[in-house]
Amino acid sequence: MRNETIINQLRAFHFLSGVLKNQQHDPFCGKCLAFEKVSETCMDNFIKCENDCRSKRAHLSKELSDLFSRVYDQFASIQHSDDPIGQKKAGNCKLPGGVCLTKVAIALYETMGN
Q: Greatest CA span in the chain, whole angstroms?
């Protein structure tokens, strides 16, 4: 994996972890099944990325290397509801059809080709 690819993925995961960390406090997103699934998928993908580029991490700047730790900490701090439900299906989420704040974040990551 090229350094540029690693850096772009790391920045995307930093964005995702920050969005998800904040959205867990949203009265609907934080209790939503979509939030749980997306945050777990993102964390799994981040751990895979971290393992795949472990040998190249030593060649990154200290700032970027430290970012790996911050991203991991942000993902690890995300708490899930004990009983998540699909908020749209339950009629609680009033965002327009086809809009999910949690899914928008992962869509950006996927658009980047990661």
A: 49
* pLDDT (tens digit per residue) in 49-73: 888 878 777 778 889 889 989 999 9
Distances (CA, A) of 109 to 59, 62, 84, 113: 24, 24, 24, 7
* Strand partners of residue 85: 32
CA–CA separation, 86 and 101 (whole Å): 13
- Summarised one tens digit per residue, pLDDT across range 87-109 is 999 999 999 988 999 998 888 87
Beta strands in the chain (DSSP E): none
3-state helix, strand, coil in the chain (%, to 5): 65, 0, 30
Q: What are phi and psi of 85, to 5 degrees?
A: -130, 160
- Total-model pTM: 0.87
Q: How many helices (H) and strands (E) does the chain have?
A: 5, 0
